[in-house]
Every structure is written in C-alpha cells, then in structure tokens.
Design a protein that fits this description.
With about 850 residues, the protein is α+β, with helices and mostly antiparallel strands. It has 10 helices and 41 strands. A hairpin with a 4-residue loop joins strand 3 and strand 4.
C-alpha cells in the first residue's frame, strides 16, 4: 500500500511567491532583514556535572524498574530514585558555533545529552544576552547527541523523570553554566569566516555504521519512490566553517544514530558512539579543529560497528571518519554576505488543537468524551487504507503513555480502545500515580505542563555554497529545522518533502533532539503501525507531524518576509511554567586527605570487571597488553572531577604533556582513560565520607597508530579540587590539589607467534579486561592482526635474512603468513617485528 500524503494546499501563486522569497533573494536585496559579512567563532569544552548524577535514557536504571546499573549500595547527593553514575569513560562535551552577519546572530550548541530541556535553552539565552548585551531570545539552538550514558536529571518535566530521575536544581545550574561558558568562548573567538554545506546520500550502504531498527514499518510504502523494506535516514550533512583565509575552524556533521552501544547496566559517563566519531574525525587533522555531531532522523537508527562496549564505540568512529572527512574536503565555502534569520516558537500541543493535513482530509481527534460508557468504533482506516478522521480511539484528556505494545505495559487504566496500537495506551492520569510514589512528589499537575508545549526552531541561512547529494556545487538558501524529540527516518523524509512543496526549499536540513523533548516523532501512518517508538510520546499519532507543521508555518510566516520580526511580540508561544525548585543544601565533604596517593588497596568495586586492582602503575607497561592503574584520595564529587593528564619524560629529564596526533592534550575527559570514585563508607551520603578515586589507562594511542604508542617513561598528573567550606548551596568554594603517580616505562607489545609447517600466525593479544579498540579486524579482549610486519629468518650462525611471504591474510583477528619453504629451510628461528617495533621470535624445530 502507498499512503496518500499531503501535498501543498496553498495556491500555485502563493507557493511560487514563497519559493521566490526564500531561494530567489540576491545577496543585496534586503530580504529577510538584509545580509552582511559573516563572522563566526567556534569553541569546545566539557560539562561540569558531578559524578553521582544518574544517567538518562533507560528507565530500568530506576530502582523502581529493574535496578539496572547497581554497582554497590552507594547513594549520592545527586541521585534520587535512579542508580548513580560512578565515573567517566568520557566526559560530556559541548561544542558551540556563533554566527553573525551584523543583522542577526545564530548560536548553535551541541551537547552530549539524552535530549534537551527547553528550560536550559531559555536559561542559556538569558545568560548569553546578559553577558554580551545582544538580545538572543529565540536565537540560541541547543541540540543533543542522544547519549544514553550522559547525566540527565536536569529536566523539570515530570514525564522525563522516568528517563533520568527527579529534577536537581544544582545539576541544572551547572549544566547551564557550562553551556553558556563554551558559547561565550565561541563569541570571543569570532572572526571573518567562510561557510558551506555538504551533503551525500546512502553513504553507509552496508550498515557498518548505523542501521534501521524499526521493523514494524518494513512492509509499508510511505513514498512512491522509496520501496518497502528496511529504511534509515540516508543523509550525511557537513556544515563547514573556515577562516576567511580558508583555514579550518571547525565543522558540524549530522547523520542518524542512537547512542545505545552501552546498555542500561553501564554507569560510567560516555559520549557514546557519536562522540567517538567526533574524536576520529578530529584526529584526521594535523591541528585542533572543532568537531560536533548532530542528529538527523536517529529515532529509529541503531549504532553498528564491531567489537564490544567502548571499543565498539571507537569502531563506529573509525568506520565513519573517512567518509565525513571526504565530504568535508568536497564542501566549498565562501565569504560572501549571507542572510541569517531564526524563528523559535513554543507550540501549543494540547490534544484538541492537534491537526495534520492530508490531501484527502484534515486528520484530527474527535472531541474528548468523559462518559465512562463511551467506546470508540475501533476502525482506524477507510476502504482505501487511509486514516479515518476524526480519530475517536485516542479518547483521553491527559494523554496516553506506552502506546504501541501488544499488551498494556502497566496494570493501570487504558484509554479505552481495544484496537492495536491504541489498546496498550495507558491513561497518563493513571500513570501519574507512579510519579508521586516513585519520586516523592506531592502531586502531578494534569495534563503534564511539558506535554502542552513543544519548542521548535527554524533557521534560514544563505545564499551559501552547497555540495549537494548529487555531487553538484550550487549556491542556494538553506533551511534548518530543529525538532524537539526523536525524529524517525520517515519523519525527516516527510519534512524534506513538505518543505519543498510548501516553502520551495530545495535544501532542508532536519536536526532532531533539539530545543525540547516530546518523545519519538513519527508521521501518523507510521505511528499507527505500533512498536516501541509510539510508546514515548503521549498525544498519539498526530503529535509528531503537528509539530512539523508548526515549524513549517513558523518558517513561512517569519523567515520568508522582508524584515526581521521580534520573536513573539503577542506572547502566543510561551514555554511551560514549572514549580520553582531550590538548590539542594547537602554540603560536600571536607576532605583533608585530598591529593594523597594511596599506598594500600581499598576494598571496592572498580568498573573493569575481573581487573585486579592496583594503587600504582607497574614499572613496565606493555603497549596494548597492560592497563596501568593509579589510586588516590581526592575531593567530594560535588566539587572534584579530577583532570588527569598523561605526561612523558623528555630527553633532558623534564616532563611534557602527551598530545594526540591533532595536538590535543591526552587527558581523562577523552576515551583513553577510565576514572571512577567510591566513597567510604558507601552510605549514607549525609555521613562524613572519604572519597577514593581510581584511574585505568590502557597503553594504546588515542586514535592514530593504536599499537604504536611512543616508547619511554610516563606518569599520570592529577589536578583536582576539594571543598573549602563556607557555603550552604552551590557554587561550592574549592581548594586545588595536584599529585603525580610513580613513573613507568612503556615497552613494546609481545607478538604471539605460532608456526605450523610453512604457515606462520601472529597476533597482538589484548588483555581480557581491555576496553580500547586495537584493530577493526581484531578484538579489544583478544587477538589483533600484526600490521606491516617484517619477517626475518635467523640461521644457526646468526645470519639474518628478510623473508617475503607468499601470501598474507587475516583470519580470526590474526595475521597469517604463508612462507616459502625454501626461504626458511636453513633457519633456526623466525623473528617478526611490526612497523612500531612490537615483536617476537619463534624457534623452528
């Protein structure tokens, strides 16, 4: 069946006028408030969360639902009903781009988070406006990577307590301050700039990087030119930012991918697969270039890659980086004057205002019937397979949760329909009792305030150079649409098509997980197929595309006019209002021993399973095969998130920071080190506690030449903070401490060799507790190929002869060399040394 979708209902003359307004403006015609010379600044930094905040994205982490991720009995000042985080594999990263053409600014910010809370957007806008003297109302866009391993209890919306725990004002304020600080760094970095857009399609045809996860819609044809079957958002987009002289400043890239490599049991912060793609792209440059990830239609796209857990995240980065860099290289930039205009609206999303246009009808809900005896007709489609309207199956005044399952998820009242997928929808009124019970709140205002508004943003940029998906270079306007939820592949495709039909925009870029969160965003026909995705939005099949229409209307009403309008002078689009929540008053521990290296092993669980704990590194650390550990007493996590840098001894005996190939200091916020903390005693958190910090580092290069870490003498340098006392609420006064570990020698890895006749097999074997990617064809906890090896035959008189293999293959993570029997006939041993000096010798019988 092919669904009949909405076509532009406006007259041809109006559609043509809109198209001319958006695409046809010249650089000096004054459209959209005029154009001007572009200045741009980019900056990056890390979010200031305390360890102990719960991670978002998995309700199973709540002690009320499964208790996943429970390492021990600890409680923290920053978790309520969810199990707390215990440390970091990577620290949540913030990337900001500040654009200005002299008429209107645009601030685009990416965070590693599960989604975005509109209250954070408003607070950041206010801070930036105050700091710069520029009114940034509606001009700040915050988008998230959708990491399911990032701190999350900064959202005041009760709906999302089930995804990230009860709201904590201190966590919120620290996140806002972090985001604003990075944005101001971008403001201060502004300079004349050149920008451009690059796009390509179907760039991951073998699903090595990401794949469709929504099987429920595989049998449906939504668009006549896209056949039924597995379908994922096919686009890769690059926004390239250079100096006016053509030197790279940074980029944003976008494609569709969930952040779910680490499952619900993980309690270490992680930037997930998307952040590891950023890291791999960064290291393709020979200098620090700022790189940020944004989501296209990631709602139904899973990460792929190879290997396991954190190594799998790295593998996604390695598999994606070359394609992204290739597109970046093909993306042209220009310094020509451009228009910049942005409109932000908090849409009214009450049930009875939801409408979605189709060419055969306006889809809407039947009026709510409170009569307990009411029952819908439970007929969803007409004889042509089209959605019947009005829809009487969604008969609820507070919303329906957990829709789309085969049976109700909770033993509570449903909305009353017996037809799938409505039959599993739980009344939000009934579910709200769980909020009160689980999170200790007095009551739940119904309908939930966060469900009555959806914040959307549309931005118009251009004309600017575009490398389009066909490989052509054009100069056009671009429309960005920023959506408050998890758009699926059919949703982003529908948006691109509707924007072209209604606005005339040939180049439309949808970005999800931005500005706000309303759950999964699906078109009605897809929602009605059921499955997992419909269960995390509460206003049924019309909610997603209604939000899309609101964004399209905002673009048509504001971005296509000839002047810059105020964002919302009548006050028609306000954000929801939440009850005020004060800062917590649980004061951090004073830690007089902070900065002291441990001499004895404390009894607590460290995050690498089966790793024998050690308070200090061993004297020698083999590349790949050893994990160096260091333990110290530090500050309370409320103030202390130690920065650990790896240092290498110079020829003169001094110490210098180890830099990555792109010139960034190798440190604990990156994926090279794991850092965790454990209090003693574990509980209660109100009791005086000492805080023990643990570091684990596997001797693997950051990204480039993973088995070739330079040999030499190393140490860890720790910079931390302890609570200085004197405050009742955050911000907490601190005192700095620092210490260094004992030194250790990094030595070459051992190659495991086995000779069977003329077949020689070799591998670099990672430890069973390894967490780093070593090779895409190997294993983080097993065998890895030996690359670019030299094989030397050693005769009885110590004559050494280089042996050229007849054939070299890789099997099971091992390199297999087929040797010429005559070439090794006189040998008593074979030596294998790879390009980095890792080696071994095998004796011949």
């Amino acid at each position: 069946m092919i669904w009949s979708f909405y076509q532009a209902s406006r007259s041809f003359a109006v559609a043509s006028a809109l198209s001319m307004a958006l695409i046809g403006c010249s650089a000096d015609d004054g459209g959209g408030g005029g154009s001007g010379t572009l200045v741009a600044g980019m900056a990056e930094g890390y979010a200031d969360f305390p360890v102990g905040t719960p991670l978002g994205g998995y309700t199973a982490r709540c002690r009320c639902f499964g208790n996943a991720g429970r390492y021990d009995t600890r409680r923290t000042a920053y978790s309520d009903s969810f199990n707390p985080s215990i440390g970091e594999q990577t620290q949540p990263k913030i990337v900001a781009l500040w654009l200005d053409n002299g008429t209107q600014p645009l601030v685009l910010i990416k965070t590693d988070a599960i989604y975005i809370f509109e209250g954070i957007v408003a607070a950041v806008e206010q801070r930036l406006s105050t700091a710069t003297g520029v009114d940034l109302t509606g001009k700040v866009i915050i988008t998230s990577t959708h990491s399911h391993s990032a701190p999350a209890n900064w959202d005041q919306g009760l709906t999302w307590y089930l995804g990230g725990d009860k709201f904590n004002r201190e966590v919120f304020e620290r996140d806002v301050a972090s985001i604003a600080d990075v944005a101001l760094d971008a403001w201060n970095a502004r300079q004349p700039a050149a920008i451009g857009i690059g796009q390509t399609k179907n760039w991951d045809p073998d699903n090595r990087i990401y794949s469709d996860r929504r099987g429920e819609n595989d049998g449906t044809v939504f668009f006549a030119d896209i056949p039924a079957g597995s379908y994922k958002d096919p686009y890769l987009t690059v926004l390239r930012v250079d100096t006016a002289a053509g030197e790279p400043i940074g980029m944003f890239f976008a494609f569709a991918m969930h952040g779910t490599v680490a499952g619900e049991d993980n309690q270490l912060w992680s930037v997930e697969a998307s952040g590891h793609v950023e890291a791999s792209v960064e290291e393709r440059f020979d200098r620090p270039v700022i790189v940020g990830f944004m989501q296209h239609g990631g709602g139904d796209a899973s990460p792929r890659g190879v290997d396991d857990l954190f190594a799998r995240m790295e593998s996604v980065g390695e598999l994606a980086a070359d394609a992204i860099l290739d597109l970046w290289e093909q993306t042209p930039t220009a310094t020509d004057p451009i228009h910049i205009e942005t409109i932000t609206r908090s849409l009214d999303t009450r049930r009875d205002v939801l409408r979605v246009e189709r060419d055969y009808a306006t889809l809407q809900y039947a009026p709510y019937d409170p009569n307990p005896a009411f029952h819908p007709d439970d007929i969803i489609y007409d004889a042509q397979g089209r959605v019947l309207s009005p829809i009487d199956e969604f008969n609820t005044d507070t919303g329906g949760a957990f829709c789309g399952a085969e049976s109700p998820a909770l033993p509570v009242e449903t909305i009353g329909s017996n037809v799938y997928p409505y039959s599993s929808c739980a009344e939000v009124r009934a579910v709200s009792g769980a909020f009160i019970l689980f999170f200790g709140i007095a009551n739940a205002e119904l309908p939930l305030p966060e469900s009555l508004h959806a914040k959307v943003t549309a931005s118009r940029l251009g004309p600017l150079p575009i490398r389009n998906a066909a490989g052509e270079i054009v100069t056009e306007e671009v429309l960005f649409g920023f959506f408050p939820g998890e758009p699926t592949a059919t949703y982003t495709e529908q948006f691109r098509r509707r924007a072209l039909a209604e606005l005339g925009t040939a180049y439309t870029i949808p970005i999800g997980y931005s500005q706000d969160h309303q759950g999964y965003l699906l078109i009605p026909e897809d929602w009605l197929l059921g499955g997992y995705e419909p269960n995390i939005n509460i206003w049924g099949p019309l909610q997603g595309e209604y939000i899309m229409e609101g964004l399209l209307n905002a673009a048509a009403e504001v971005l296509l006019t000839d002047e810059i309008e105020p964002p919302d002078p009548p006050g028609l689009y306000p954000d929801p209002v939440y009850q005020d929540s004060p800062l917590p008053r649980l004061v951090p521990d004073t830690t007089p021993g902070a900065g002291t290296a441990l001499t004895g092993l404390p009894s607590f669980l460290i995050p690498i399973r089966n790793l024998a704990g050690a308070v200090a590194p061993p004297a020698q650390v083999r590349r790949v095969q050893d994990i160096a550990q260091f333990m110290w007493e530090g500050g309370d996590p409320g103030v202390d998130l130690p920065l650990v840098e790896l240092e290498k001894q110079t020829a003169s005996g001094g110490w210098q920071r180890v830099l990555t190939a792109a010139g960034r200091p190798l440190s604990s916020p990156m994926h090279d080190m794991i850092v965790s903390t454990t209090p003693s005693p574990l509980a209660p958190v109100s009791a005086p506690q000492r805080h023990y910090w643990w570091l684990g580092w596997q001797a693997v290069s950051h990204v480039i030449d993973r088995t070739g870490l330079p040999l030499g003498t190393y140490r860890f340098h720790v910079y931390g903070k302890s609570y200085a006392g004197g405050a009742e609420t955050w911000p907490w006064p601190t005192t700095a401490y620092e210490l260094t570990s004992s030194t250790f020698e990094v030595v070459a890895a051992n190659i495991t060799l086995q000779l069977n006749g003329a077949t020689l097999t070799g591998s670099i074997d990672a430890p069973a507790t390894g967490f780093r990617l070593i090779d895409l064809e190997g294993s983080s906890r097993g065998a890895n190929p030996v690359r670019d090896a030299t094989i030397t035959a050693i005769d009885a008189d110590d004559t050494r002869t280089t042996v050229t293999p007849v054939e070299t293959t890789i099997s099971g993570g091992r390199t297999v060399w087929t040797l010429d029997v005559e070439a090794i006939a006189a040998a008593v041993a074979l030596e294998v040394v790879d390009a980095s000096g890792n080696g071994a010798t095998v004796e011949l019988n």
